[in-house]
Amino acid sequence: MQNALKSKGLRDTQPRRLVIEALARIRSAASPAEIHDSIDKKGAAINLVTVYRVLEVLREKHLIHQHPCDGRYSLCSMPDASGHHGFLHCSSCGKTEEFVNAALCRMEDAIARKAKFRPSEHVSELIGTCHSCSSRA
Ligand SMILES: [Zn+2]
Ligand SMILES: [Zn+2]
Ligand SMILES: [Zn+2]
Q1: What pLDDT was estimated at residue 45?
Q2: Half-sphere exposure for 120 (CA within 13 Å, toward CB)
Q3: Residues 6+ apart with CB under 8 A from 89
Q4: Confidence (pLDDT) at 39
Q5: Among the listed residues 60, 132, 45, the one whose alpha carbon sits nearest the alpha carbon of residue 97
Q6: Ligand 2 mean position to 33 CA, how many Å?
Q7: From the centroid of its chain, how far is CA 98?
Q8: How far is ligand 1, taken at its centre, from the CA of residue 137, in Å?
Q9: pTM
Q10: CA of 107, nearest ligand number
Q11: Which residues of the chain have pLDDT under 50?
Q12: Which of these, 26, 118, 123, 125, is most buried using a 10 Å CB contact count?
């Protein structure tokens, strides 16, 4: 993940590394408070304001995503893949899966152009039931 910071032109600072490591440990979407808790449990000192600030920087560089439905954060699983990054969120087990689709982005950009709208980012999330939850029912 140090390489991920460098590849995005970010300095490898301790708070940035701690936040990325916490998200990797949690493995699902997490709130700033949960990220902070996880860092705390590892015995590292970092305050919540710093967590928010780091999340904003990482989000701007597309290393992490903020989920539209609940505002939680997760590591981007494909930071170098261009196209639309979106999520399939299972409301029954809470699992979130990321997808990338370039054609979707082109359609969204066409919609934006038509409305003379300048998007700064694309976010989307599909909420429903994942395969393992729906086959268990
Ligand atoms: Zn992504
Ligand atoms: Zn599920
Ligand atoms: Zn898009």
Answers
A1: 85
A2: 3
A3: 67, 69, 95, 96, 125, 126, 127, 128
A4: 96
A5: 132
A6: 24
A7: 9
A8: 30
A9: 0.83
A10: 3
A11: none
A12: 26
